[in-house]
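Here is one such tokenized protein:
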Amino acid sequence: MADEKKQIYPLLLEKNKRWIGAIEKGIAALDPREQKLVMQDAGRDCSPDIWGLCEKALGSPVDSVDDLIRGWNLVRQSRNLHGDWVVEGNVVHGVFTECGCPLVRAGLVELQPVQCWCSQNMMEGIFSRAAKGKVSGEVKQSIGRGDKVCEFYVTF
């Protein structure tokens, strides 16, 4: 039975990648406003994972935007991911040289432009939680859309 699972796992992984890719192509056919809405829950559902990683890196709860940024930068450094979040007045700015999506980095999904909406929604969710109020996220550049870096702005 164990050998059978080992043989079928790569096939299921490839099937999953094709299935997700087909869904993402369908989402890409929508207008940008609809794309963002479709990817909203996916992004928001990812934010608790980031939050937990930040708390683990800090060794304490995330109680503020500064805690979140410090923890997130520690997580990125521990995984050899280049780029940091920095605070510039009422804006948090980040420039990164690789896609931060763990599904992309693990090879579970192919990088597609619609995933950038997932990232934007995730950032809005996690920074809203840290700020205890609504924030606005913006993707200025993204590797998924053909740029050399991912650049994000979160405004409070």
